[in-house]
Amino acid sequence: MRDLSGIVKAYDIRGVVGQDLDTDVVRDIGAAFTRLVGGPAVVIGHDMRESSPRLAAAFAEGVTGQGIDVVHIGLASTDMLYYASGQLELPSAMFTASHNPAEYNGIKLCRSGAAPVGQDSGLSEIQELVTHGVPEFLGAKGTISERDMLRGYASCLRELVDIDDIGPLRIVVDAGNGMGGHTVPPVFEGTPVEVVPLYFELDGTFPNHVANPLEPANIVDLQEKVLAVGADAGIAFDGDADRCYVVDADAEPVSPSAITALIATRELTKEPGASIIHNLITSRAVPEIVTEHGGHPVRTRVGHSFIKQTMAETGAIFGGEHSAHYYFRDFWRADSGMLAALHVLAAFGGQRESLSTMMAEYSRYVASGEINSTVGDQQDRMRAIAETFRDRNGARIDELDGLTVELANGSWFNVRPSNTEPLLRLNVEAADTDTMSALRDEVLEVIRG
User: Fold this and answer.
1) Which domain holds residue 274?
2) What is the pTM of this model?
3) Which residues are catalytic?
4) In a domain, 288, yes or no
5) What averages of pLDDT result for each successive group of 10 residues across the chain (449 residues)?
6) Cβ atoms of 361 and 285 closer than 8 Å
7) Are residues 40 and 79 in the same domain?
8) How far is Cα 382 from Cα 439, in angstroms, rounded to an integer?
9) Cα 211 → chain centroid
């Protein structure tokens, strides 16, 4: 019996290679995934990590061992893998650990049409099958074929967002030695955008910085390069390039919530009155702006499986998260950092204002950013927070995802326990810096005791 409890997460499978993940485990996971989704074939792609090709090969052995064919697309960003799943109408597996350090790897799984496979939509069944042994298939093995999807992926994105007629732009792009270095060139080829590349060399050891642009230390090089070359903006991708982070010409970060609001207004011009998804940590400016533009804001829990499920249920045209994941109905409801970047450049390049001026109307409040605190008892601290604020005049509390408290002055905060670590994650937003700071400090005092 195999124990996968340490590597099966809420949305994917992830662990340290050689310690949690090896070829034998991955082969069994491939066989179990095939049992879950059936045929006729499974698409497999992988990132630039040293372990990714061999793990992808082991997964392919598990798939073909169950009599199902494999379509191998080779090096890919996660959203390119989603494109292949949607375009080919096949289930798929992406080998990546996203922004995690080099010693990690993982598998993101989806059904045909890029429909996510999470803990409640198939991962638990896969875990159960591997734990108790996947039944042996006695028929003929499946075959493995290779297919190049890069050009088709680039064309698909350019059809969804046309940037051919925008004014010329100089943009620094930090790929972080991740998959953006593979996908950015064909996407921007022949456009009015001059790309100044930073760390485009594919290197799964991440020799320059961790490919996680949400950490301020990891965008310092991007900020310095933007200022050095006089760029109009900068864009940073994470390791598997499904998230993008933007800085303006002054190297100031642009809030992912502001990006969500911008793209929402653009999508609403195509389909007035449509629903727009935002998770409960996104700035309150997002539902306000969506409503002002005639859209219908829909609030959901944090996490791509919840976003995609709610998009399917509501027919939402777009969804955004505070973590810089952006979801598009016309891209199989999948998230794509590249598609979000194209939207920003299309809006920016189509007018004469600076990026900071353009984005000002979408940034109405002051946010703390996510603050993590290590605690001994998550639920005890959550109860303490609820007791502290329950009787606060005008306070409203809900428990959709962790604990969200809205105060009478319009300030709010959310505290969520981590699923994998002894952490509480705090996000605070208010009308001004002083109010935000005071509320942040008060909540942190309760959390940290």
Assistant:
1) 256-360
2) 0.94
3) 98
4) yes
5) 85 93 97 95 98 98 98 98 98 95 95 92 94 92 98 98 94 98 97 97 97 95 98 98 97 97 98 96 97 97 85 96 94 97 95 93 94 94 94 90 94 90 93 97 94
6) no
7) yes
8) 16
9) 13
